[in-house]
Amino acid sequence: MRAARATHGAALHPFSVEDPADMFAPLLKKLFGSKNEREVKRMLKTVQLVNAFEEQMVALSDDQLRAKTDEFKARIAKGESLDKLLPEAFAVAREAGKRVMGMRHFDVQLIGGMTLHEGMIAEMRTGEGKTLVATLGVYLNALSGKGVHVVTVNDYLARRDANWMRPLYEFLGMTVGVVTPFQPPEEKRLAYAADITYGTNNEFGFDYLRDNMAFSMEEKFQRELNFAVIDEVDSILIDEARTPLIISGQAEDSSKLYIEINKLIPTLELHVEEVEGEVTKAGHYTVDEKTRQVELNEAGHQYVEETLTSIGLLAEGESLYSAHNLSLLTHVYAGLRAHKLFHRNVEYIVQDGQVVLVDEHTGRTMPGRRLSEGLHQAIEAKENLNIQAESQTLASTTFQNYFRLYNKLSGMTGTADTEAFEFHQIYGLQVMVIPPNKPLARKDYNDLVFLTAEEKYAAIVADIKESMAAGRPVLVGTATIETSEHMSGLLVKEGIEHKVLNAKFHEKEAEIIAQAGRPGALTIATNMAGRGTDILLGGNWEVEVASLEDPTPEQIAQIKADWQKRHQQVLESGGLQVIASERHESRRIDNQLRGRAGRQGDAGSSRFYLSLEDSLMRIFASDRVKNFMKALGMQPGEAIEHRMVTNAIEKAQRKVEGRNFDIRKQLLEFDDVNNEQRKVIYHMRNTLLAADNIGETIADFRQDVLNATISAHIPPQSLPEQWDVAGLEAALQSDFGVALPIQQWLDEDDHLYEETLREKLMQELIAAYNEKEDQAGAEALRSFEKQIVLRVLDDLWKDHLSTMDHLRHGIHLRGYAQKNPKQEYKRESFTLFSELLDSIKRDSIRVLSHVQVRREDPIEEEQRLRQEAEALAARMQFHHEEAPGLEHVEGLGEEIDVALAVAPVRNEQKLGRNELCYCGSGKKFKHCHGQIQ
Predict the structure, then answer these.
(1) Which parts of the sequence belong to the SecA family profile domain (predicted)?
(2) Annotated binding-site residue? 414
(3) How far, in Å, CA of 111 to CA of 566, rounded?
(4) At residue 289, does pLDDT exceed 80?
(5) Model confidence, pTM
(6) Which of 41, 98, 604, 903 has the smallest number of Cβ neighbours within 10 A?
(7) Is residue 454 included in any domain, yes or no?
(8) Is residue 483 domain-shared with residue 417, that is, in the same domain?
(9) Pair 632, 767 in one domain
């Protein structure tokens, strides 16, 4: 391989032009300092106050130091603020860290703790002690007694960090809990009742949803969502924010349909057009890799309809777009996406006969997670596996809307500054870059770009050999499992010993990481960025000690001495060498990979190896870079190393980041509509659970249902001959279970008009219900009412969620009719929600009016509800997956960004209940927005 060619001089192609407005920014920064620098200076004054307490804390005995916690709680009870307590509380936590953990918080770590307490994001480089920093803000806020949640990206880190910091917290009199999946309910309840609770973002989110499916207040887990510290905050609030949390239950079996559709998909051919629109290959479908869309064209639809008709799945002459065939169309698209967008060992792996999803950001497998909209079943059919039943949504939310429920939110990460705009716009969080304790010594080299992937891999192997020969540990970062296995195969051929760390083998993660910093060690890692574990130069001596049974002091001393020699050897050879086999679509993920080297001021270096065949380069940057390389007369095996190329790639990454931000923003705007509905339903549900007597609620339901029934058959201000009396009698019989001779009343009483008839009907209905109460007993009926309304609400809410999913999935089509999809979604979802509220009232009254309640019925009903809930819980599945409808985000046109996802703030006078609603629905306010309020 030839040496990499470094090009100098003026750029042949200007990839970016500096904004003239930015010319004065360096001057202003020099005069006044950046906002971040000003914040750090402000906090340094508080650091001095903390340091002033240190001598006083050192003089205290352990018991006296522990007693400070009770003293702080008493001062808070008397009205003292946490801000005022901060210097002394931080000094206490620092002293406890010294005594219990043997670790003293640096001054910059105190700044990190203040950043967390103030509800901001602390950006701290790898190895700067984020876990220890969290103890400061967590301890201070736990003093309020309202609980603190520490959120991590996986269960391993939640348990590790909780057990690591538990001695410090317990020394200070704080209780610590950990929430994990499949935890016994009582154990989980205790974990949430603790002062400090560790857990994953998924578990906290799912527990919130589960709490809002509980049948009593005692079954709930979470208390007030007070304060959360999110570790790896960018991973949780950015990377995973694109995908909602969904709890679902199994629906009817349609495995045969998936098998038939799976046979059809391979017969479809790809349609290819050149840039100018010239068809080079006529086919049935198109694939857009940028937006991850796959679409049938006209010929494709015709072919699919003919094929489905021939095998009996579609009636003769029927269209796929007929209302009753839409589910069939969904199956076809699920099959297309499964075959054309989801690849084995990239987006998923097959393990023990199951399709297991792979997290694209961390490379970890996600057992138990399933894709919705029939996509998971389509992949199972594609892989010839047993097809599991489809799922129906029971509850859902997004991380954006869940974490915005906390009174105060903060986070920590090594890379947040590139996403500062999104953090501020979506969550209202400011990013603070915390100065490192030691200056960074890592060297970050320019990217090397090759024409082909084969040349790139050859260069990587050569770099590995050179680094290992020098005694340096090497970490090779790959974006997919497929790439890691390909690299491993190349190294096996070369006879180079190495360890592989990817989604298939993460059980061995700690063991591999422990040795990854040894001299000459080689580790291949799939998206190492999200692993949450530091690579220590020379290896990890503590892991070696832990592997021994009852180690003697002499053995421990020897292990430490051996480690010190290895540590020094690695430092002298240049530290950890990070090699990346391709660029991730996010600069932040690349920065995380780089950040594995050079921790705490250690030596280290990083280099990215790219080729024009890489997915990011192929989709976004290949034409420009290829033309540039041709202009230089590049030869096979030769690489280009130029800052301009790196800039071009970063520009491509910014494009992808911008698109992904739009997708997340779009998800949030859609879910904001759902969230308003979710809050109304959950508030209604919690009110029902907390109430001992819902008699007044039932009376209100009865009044509303009667009014709606009368209005449907006796139009307001209409003449008696326009009344549908027979229809009214039938409706009252259906809804209230009573046969009333309304026509006879009207014939006998000339003074019976609309309002007096309404009053007479209400009296009759109340009398009939009171008779039922006399038979069953007031206490039994009150209990039964509560259980029935809960059941009706849950069943209808579940169906409503399914309807909303279908609405969102097809809403992008409104754009083709020159309508704004977001506005249409907002309008239609409000109509659906109004109908839901009406249905909850009507169905509850209908059941309560028709059922014959015995005194033992409430107990039996409660037992039946619990049995059903337990059976449902056993069938529940927990998903965190791509939101439906988002694959069309780029096809909506620019006008979509103009739409508001929530109703604007209104300053008009308060409307009367009988006035027309302000939304333009044509309904009275009391039957429209008024009933939601």
Answers:
(1) 25-641
(2) no
(3) 33
(4) no
(5) 0.71
(6) 41
(7) yes
(8) no
(9) no
Query: Does one domain contain both 859 and 722?
Result: yes
The answer to whether residue 736 is domain-embedded is yes
Which residue is it, tokens 């020094």? 568
Does residue 4 fall inside a structural domain? no
Question: Would you say 590 is a known binding-site residue?
Answer: no
* 534 annotated ligand-binding residue: yes
Residue 931's pLDDT is what? 47
Residue 857 has pLDDT above 60, yes or no: no
Domain count, the chain: 4
Is residue 78 located within the same domain as residue 202? yes
Q: Which domain covers residue 506, as residue numbers?
A: 438-641
Paired residues of 197 in beta bridges: 149, 177
* Cross-strand bridge partners of residue 525: 477, 501
Between residues 744 and 280, which one has the greater pLDDT? 744
Q: How far is CA 265 from CA 261, 304, 305, 338, 751, in A?
A: 6, 9, 13, 10, 71
Percent of the chain at pLDDT above 70?
A: 82
d(CA 821, CA 812): 6
764 is in an annotated binding site: no
User: Looking at the structure, do residues 529 and 669 belong to the same domain, yes or no?
Assistant: no
User: What is the average pLDDT across 562-576?
Assistant: 93
Residue where a domain terminates, one of 641, 671, 702: 641
Residue 650 lies in a domain: no
Question: CA angle, corner 276, sides to 273 and 282, nearest 5?
Answer: 20
Residues 170, 172: Cα–Cα separation, whole Å: 5
Q: Is 362 labeled as ligand-binding?
A: no
- Whether 376 and 447 map to the same domain: the answer is no
**Residue 843 among known ligand-binding residues:** no
Residue 728's domain is classified under what CATH number?
1.10.3060.10
Using alpha carbons, select from 326, 418, 402, 494 the residue that is nearest to residue 656: 418
Contact call for residues 514 and 499 (beta carbons, < 8 A):
no
Binding residue per annotation — 564? no
The mean pLDDT of 431-457, rounded to a whole number, is 89
Residues 219 and 300 in one domain: no
Query: In this predicted structure, what is the pLDDT of residue 905?
Result: 27
Q: Do 678 and 635 fall into the same domain? A: no
Alpha-carbon Rg for the chain in angstroms: 32
Average pLDDT over residues 842-859: 72
**Distances from the Cα of 208 to the Cα of 212, 462, 798, 876, angstroms:** 7, 51, 16, 15
CATH number, domain with residue 41: 3.40.50.300
Mapped to the 3 state alphabet, what secondary structure does 143-192 carry? CCCCCEEEEECCHHHHHHHHHHHHHHHHHCCCCEEECCCCCCHHHHHHHH
pLDDT at 601: 82
Q: What was the pLDDT predicted at 883?
A: 43
| Distance between CA atoms of residues 236 and 399, nearest Å | 8
Rounded Cα gap, residues 107 and 127, in angstroms: 15
Q: 910 pLDDT band (50/70/90 cuts)?
A: very low
